[in-house]
Amino acid sequence: MSILLEAHFVKSVAEWRDLPPDTGTEVAFVGRSNAGKSTAINAVVRHKLAFVSRTPGRTQTINFYSCGEGQRLVDLPGYGYAAVPLKERKRWGELISAYLQKRHALQGIIAIMDARHPFTELDRQLLAWLSRSPPYLHVLLTKADKLTRQEAHNTLRACTEVLSDILPSATLQLFSGTTGMGVSTVQKLIWNWLHKKTPG
Q1: What Å distances lie between residue 51 and 9, 77, 147, 154, CA to CA?
Q2: How many CB atoms are closer than 10 A to CB 100?
Q3: Tag placement on the chain: N or C end, fewer CB within 10 Å?
């Protein structure tokens, strides 16, 4: 897992033509704005890598982080933040769509959802779209530390049922970047994807 701890910034990309060479392996993080994506990334690598902002929608580019020879973590722009101008949201959407559809290096996707508000309409649209030809996909139910034990249990059960209807091959877990809940599980999963091993 040490390669994840060595992750460092490589470049930010706003246009398809500026993407790094499509070689090696990548794991992408995607999620609705303000769902805790940057906090999750930082928890996985155990240092401040992605910028955590109080202003949703701050990530406006695809950010690439190297964590080994030919191995990268990819932070995709958050979706669904209404305060971002429509033209800008459209540009993000086109860039994200092209990346997810055409990127050969992409081995798996970590979808970020707030455990208190999971499977919004935008989340469902994303998962339904990914179900057409998905790489491996794993859902992190973030901010799970804000739930009681019973709420967490009920949320996990309900979300498992919803996900099995939308994308049966996908997996999910409760996660908290604040307390470290579930960090080691997702670290192992990402390591496996980057090394082209089977999920788990």
Answers
A1: 11, 12, 25, 31
A2: 19
A3: C
The answer to whether 27 and 109 have CB atoms below 8 angstroms apart is yes
Q: How many folded domains does the chain comprise?
A: 1
β-partners of residue 27 are 73, 108
Tokens of 117: 């508000």
Say what the pTM is.
0.89
37 is a domain residue: yes
Six-digit token string for 176 = 């908290």
Q: Report yes or no on 29 lying in a domain.
A: yes
Q: Is residue 200 part of a domain?
A: no
Query: What Rg value do the Cα atoms of the chain yield, rounded?
Result: 16
H or E element, residue 40:
helix 37-45
The yes-or-no verdict on residue 91 having pLDDT over 70 is: no
Give the residue numbers spanning the domain of 14. 2-194
* Two tokens, residue 145: 């530390």
- In the block, tokens 């990334």 appear at 41
Tokens standing for residue 126: 């994303």
Give pLDDT tens digits for 162-180: 999 988 999 999 999 999 9
CATH of the domain at 6: 3.40.50.300
Of the candidates 191, 9, 15, the one whose C-alpha atom is nearest the C-alpha of residue 110 is 191
Amino acid letter for position 144: A
Retrieve residue 9's tokens. Answer: 């910034």
